[in-house]
Amino acid sequence: xxxxxxxxxxxxxxxxxxxxxxxxxxxxxxxxxxxxxxxxxxxxxxxxxxxxxxxxxxxxxxxxxxxxxxxxxxxxxxxxxxxxxxxxxxxxxxxxxxxxxxxxxxxxxxxxxxxxxxxxxxxxxxxxxxxxxxxxxxxxxxxxxxxxxxxxxxxxxxxxxxxxxxxxxxxxxxxxxxxxxxxxxxxxxxxxxxxxxxxxxxxxxxxxxxxxxxxxxxxxxxxxxxxxxxxxxxxxxxxxxxxxxxxxxxxxxxxxxxxxxxxxxxxxxxxxxxxxxxxxxxxxxxxxxxxxxxxxxxxxxxxxxxxxxxxxxxxxxxxxxxxxxxxxxxxxxxx
Length: 335
Description:
The protein is an alpha/beta fold.
């Protein structure tokens, strides 16, 4: 009888130890720490950097500090293409990129950086609801382990920054215009009449100054940030590309997060992106005044043959086999 009681007592102790152990693991899991090292090529003075910090702070607060986003400006972790390859392998890094580069994996998504594809922030918001765009994002995730958190990050419209006025595609003939070295950017600039030159943004100033290039196509914030008003005399508002940015992480890292944290990461990324994009849009007029104050002549869109530029830009869609992708998405947008 005593042996039986002793056996029951031992069993109860073992059960209590097991339950305590299980509770400990559950509690430990709920407080597990995650770190995302987020890389971007922009300077700390750029609005997007503050936007990323806002995103990080919101995520930290909503996860009680258990999901920390560490933001690294000025490509401190490395070049964009290398970071994307790292995150694909499961490294806990993220990157601010664009559809042109993502088009190296899913070709049709590059259309989002083609000439006159999206022209307003409202256009970009509509893209979030496009079944075709959603499929491209799914393909990136399922086939290439790239998880897009948000593309509500819009730097604005790109214009021609040169030392001669540009009012029609004919004015770009013979000009060497700097643009990123990926197909959709290159073909877009070529279709508009110029010769594309792949060059890092940090070399644009000296490139224009020394005549290695005749100009660049950039958003207004790039002109002030790079002090290009010291090297170029004109900004022609061709508005040829709406610069949409994508925030990406690796699928393996994303899948390692609790579902609640996944939702928070996406929700706050979308929110921060839209807020900073609208703020930048509101600051455009002030940037133009600042640039003009340095002696740069701004040629407004109403003095430019935008219709001719749009017609010329069709060549980029044809060359890259993006006509069907564009038309399908436009139909879904009601555009």
